[in-house]
Amino acid sequence: MINSPLFFSQKLRQTESAAAGLSLMHRAGEASASWILKHYPAAQIIYVLAGPGNNGGDALITASLLQQAGKTILLRLTSPSITADAKNAFAKWQATGGQTILATPDHADLAIDGLFGLGLNRAPSEADGQIMAGLQALGCPIIALDIPSGLMADSGAAPGAVIHATHTLSFISHKPGLFTARGCDVCGEISLHDLQIPAHLYPEADGYLQNHAPVSVGQLLRRPDSHKGSYGTVGVMGGASGMSGATLLAGRAALHIGAGRVVLGLLDKTLSADPVQPELMLHSAEEALQHPALSFMLTGPGLGNSAAALATLRQSIASPLALLLDADALNLLAGSAELTAAMQERSSPSIITPHPAEAARLLHTSTQAVQANRIESALTLAQRYKATVLLKGAGSVCSDGQSWSINASGNAALASAGQGDVLSGIIAALAAQGLKPLDAVQSGCWLHGRAADDWRRAHPNGIGLTASETISYARAALNQVLGAY
């Protein structure tokens, strides 16, 4: 299966220039009008908000075609068109007898957002924000042309007012900002309309949307002549007093996703066995760090910030094993120049899986700065810590410092305690079974999200998914994917 290419606005502008002779504005208008007539045939009164640029031109063409189809169009042009194509579109609108209005109407069956498009790189003005608020207050479905106004196409940030669309009609290609950060909240359903641009006019993609499980998961199919040692031994280091649950969740997830053995190294060795998952081998952290069978190490779930935790992290980074750092390990790493240098010197693969606040500590910046450009933050983290990165959150970003992808699976049901521990256990198991770091991160992130998507089919409001439940759904998703190989 092919994942969707993602392009930053600069490359999309290049594509538009290369396809300049193809009447792209007219094609966008035709695609929009056709889609609206198909999906909202009963909408008779349609409010169209058009800005001065090419996005406004797309809206003007759409308005003209919908009016020709018998719809009542209430068109508001916020300021005179400034591009040649948009001026031509407005002239065509006037030539068909189209009129404009000066304020938001009192009622509409449907609204079309064509205020700002791909090129917006600032917060909308206060006046534009009031216009956008008026559109939103209509309470009718809103169709955003190319991207909801106020959303940054490259980053998914929305530094000011932003339209919350019911559906976004993305033109030419998908943009990263549609699928991460605020884009996940404001785009509604998204459909792609490539405007029939020939494939050879597209440059190389900047990144990809992970719509499907990576093909590398096929490597996990098991040979008949194998045994538990064939599938790796994961060591999970953490479990400080009062936090052993995080370590148990990560270990259970690793077992269910196929690790041959899982050893837990607990700072608080109160537990001698896991009664729910007796297959787990529980040791003290000191014992587990020296376990001769370990092939992959996960450090951080429930680790805490004690001197013992810091010593465990230091030994983990010094280990020759492939390593995943999560949770408390990341906070300790962020506060230590010594450990940062040790990470940069590691010769074995490293993975880090921060959420935005942890990423901010690792980058010595604010959470807001991380969220303002999640892709750039992930790339910087990977380069600074010489690691493969999973920047968690809505539209999780996976990067090895050179390439990046945005995960398309998952939903807000995952906003519950322990889900990060389960995710790190999933990734650790995949890596222990032989997947390369980026493949393990992309696969693990996708499976974790797919588990929540499968659960939500039975619980459509998305409330109450526990981390423990997620584990079995992730295992089912993995086996379903492998059934296609």
Automatic annotation (TrEMBL):
Cofactor note: Binds 1 potassium ion per subunit.
Keyword ATP-binding: yes
Substrates-to-products reaction catalysed: (6R)-NADPHX = (6S)-NADPHX; (6R)-NADHX = (6S)-NADHX; (6S)-NADHX + ADP = AMP + phosphate + NADH + H(+); (6S)-NADPHX + ADP = AMP + phosphate + NADPH + H(+)
Residues where AMP binds: K392, G393, A394, G395, S396, G420
Stored InterPro entries: Carbohydrate_kinase_pred_CS (IPR017953), CARKD (IPR000631), Nnr (IPR030677), Ribokinase-like (IPR029056), YjeF_N_dom (IPR004443), YjeF_N_dom_sf (IPR036652)
Domain YjeF C-terminal stretches: 211-481
A Gene Ontology biological process term: nicotinamide nucleotide metabolic process
Key words of the record: ATP-binding, Isomerase, Lyase, Metal-binding, Multifunctional enzyme, NAD, NADP, Nucleotide-binding, Potassium
Record carries keyword ATP-binding: yes
Superkingdom of origin: Bacteria
Cofactor(s) annotated in UniProt: K(+); Mg(2+)
GO molecular function: ADP-dependent NAD(P)H-hydrate dehydratase activity; ATP binding; metal ion binding; NAD(P)HX epimerase activity
Binding site for K(+): N55, D113, S149
Domain YjeF N-terminal: 8-203
Quaternary structure and interacting proteins, as annotated: Homotetramer.
Function: Catalyzes the dehydration of the S-form of NAD(P)HX at the expense of ADP, which is converted to AMP. Together with NAD(P)HX epimerase, which catalyzes the epimerization of the S- and R-forms, the enzyme allows the repair of both epimers of NAD(P)HX, a damaged form of NAD(P)H that is a result of enzymatic or heat-dependent hydration.
Family to which the UniProt record says this protein belongs: Belongs to the NnrE/AIBP family.
Protein name in UniProt: Bifunctional NAD(P)H-hydrate repair enzyme
Taxonomic lineage from the root: Bacteria, Pseudomonadati, Pseudomonadota, Betaproteobacteria, Neisseriales
